From TrEMBL:
Chain ranges of the Cyclin-like domain: 22-120, 133-226
Matches recorded under PANTHER family: CYCLIN
Lineage, broadest ranks: Eukaryota, Metazoa, Chordata, Craniata, Vertebrata
Gene Ontology MF terms in the entry: cyclin-dependent protein serine/threonine kinase regulator activity
Stated role: May be an activating cyclin for the cyclin-associated kinase CDK10.
Similarity remark: Belongs to the cyclin family. Cyclin-like FAM58 subfamily.
Protein name in UniProt: Cyclin-Q
Length: 235
């Protein structure tokens, strides 16, 4: 019975983290954040909860602090007031911005205190290398190997970029090396549309990323696809 309870708790926690990261991504868009700061905010969130408990920490407060901290790390500074107001509107659509009253200042203090907690929990390791630059390089490399018309007929690049963006809903983004995540996103995009890359002595993925195995690609693909199952459960 305990095993069933544990599995249920684990499933609920996974859903919570998915929903909170969706909140980070949507809030980031409304705040005008670039894709890399949003990715950093999600990575901070996942890293924090690798060692912290949902029973102890309020996930949406942690998320707000991760957005604030990511803005500093990626040099896209955001005012706490803007973050608080956008987050407030997320939960109360159509509402007015919060008054600068005691409730607002308490929330602002909580965000700042939580930021310090995150910094300590992560031992101030708050910079991340993201898959974006690797994916750009891999896309250029693979496109050069292919017939121009075969490439332009299918949205390979758009699909691969969407997979990278969606990967931040789950811990896959901090569990794997960024180049491996980028390569798997491209591999999955090509596979989705049945696009064959001309083969030489080695497969294309071995040429562009020498330190990954087929087993690793398949494991990361499984994690990515599980996120889409989770999305269906969280709508």
């Amino acid at each position: 019975m305990d095993n069933i309870t544990a599995a249920g708790n684990s499933s609920n926690e996974t859903k919570t983290h998915f929903r909170v990261c969706r909140f980070i991504i949507e809030t980031g868009v409304k705040l005008g954040m670039r894709s890399v700061p949003v990715a950093t905010a999600c990575s901070l969130y996942h890293k924090f909860f690798q060692t912290a408990s949902l029973q102890v920490y309020e996930p949406y407060l942690v998320a707000m602090s991760c957005i604030y901290l990511a803005g500093k790390v990626e040099e896209q500074h955001l005012r706490t007031r803007d973050i608080i107001n956008v987050c407030h509107r997320y939960f109360h659509p159509g509402s007015d911005p919060l008054e600068l009253n005691e409730k607002f200042w308490e929330l602002r203090d909580s965000v700042v205190q939580c930021e310090l907690l995150i910094l300590r929990q992560l031992n101030f390791h708050v910079s991340f290398e993201h898959p974006h630059k690797y994916l750009l390089h891999y896309l250029l490399s693979v496109r050069s190997l292919m017939n121009r018309h075969a490439w332009s007929r299918t949205p390979i690049a758009e699909t691969a970029w969407a997979l990278i963006k969606d990967s931040y809903h789950g811990p896959v983004c901090v569990r794997h090396q960024p180049q491996h995540l980028a390569l798997t996103a491209l591999y999955l995009a090509l596979h989705t549309y049945g696009v064959q890359v001309p083969a030489g002595e080695r497969d294309w993925w071995q040429v562009v990323c020498e330190d990954i195995t087929k087993a690793q690609i398949e494991a990361i693909m499984t994690e990515l696809l599980q996120l889409y199952d989770m999305e269906a459960k969280c709508t």
